[in-house]
Amino acid sequence: MHLQRLTLRCLFAFLLCYLVVITKSHAYSLGDNYFKPLTANPLEARVGTMYQFDDNKLRLDIGNSIDLQTLKLTDSLLLSLGTDFFTLTRLRSEGKLKFPVETADFYFGINGAVKHQFTPTTEWSVRLRIAHISSHLVDGYASDSVFVRQKPFVYSREFVELIGAVEFSQQVRVYGGFTYLWATQPRRANRFIPEFGFDGSYSLSKSLSFEFGYDFKLIGVDNSYQGTHAAQAGLFLKTSKNKGYLLTFFAYRGRSVHGMFYDQNDAYSGIGFQVIF
Questions:
Q1: What is the pLDDT of residues 28-64, one digit of tens each?
Q2: The pTM is what?
Q3: Cα-flanking dihedrals φ and ψ of residue 242, to 5°?
Q4: Rounded to whole angstroms, how far apart are CA atoms 116 and 122?
Q5: Are 218 and 193 contacting, i.e. CB atoms less than 8 angstroms apart?
Q6: Can you give the C-alpha Rg of the chain in angstroms?
Q7: I need a surface site. Which of 6, 16, 186, 201 has the fewest CB within 10 A?
Q8: Predicted confidence (pLDDT) at residue 139 exceeds the cutoff of 60
């Protein structure tokens, strides 16, 4: 009951701030996300799939992050309020186009971001996310083609994430921040997760660009902290305004991003594609 009241209070506070800001600002419009999702961070909303070479697994991400309201507070200061809904799904390949689902993680929450043009070539931005994530076994878990009786358990987290970033010449962005878990099951997971990284974009032509990113988190279980590395690089083919296809190479090493395996290590690389819209 205490957790439910706390969650409701956070949602109410967000809604109250939203109403206060919107009533004081008349310049607003819908548009693309003011805070661009972090390229290499696994916990971002995506629509796409990635094949993992090392373990013959397939990751399927489905979801979106939407700015529901964008507000122009001043000529150089912008505010957005939005929401995130997505799933992270891990499948295994069994041949003949059969891909049983091993585990699925469900993420939903709210977000707010501010962006300020500091100089003509430099801007800073801050994003706050308040969210819930849970994880579930689906069709069973197999390792090296041998079915493993992975015991299901309750995996659930409520948390706040704060990220600050500086972008240079609309090409390279450096960021840092943290996640704090105010409620977590199992309780073996440490509550504070620092994070930093960078990402960027290099234009190759009018419709083609090179996208890249690296993300680092320090994740603890039973007070034993371990670095988790995620990297992604690929080509973005633009088909219309900020829409297109991203063909990408990715690599991951560290604590598993999937909650059912939160205390296990993953190490893999692979290729994939994403639909950007």
A1: 333 378 899 999 999 999 999 999 988 888 999 999 9
A2: 0.85
A3: 55, 25
A4: 9
A5: yes
A6: 19
A7: 16
A8: yes
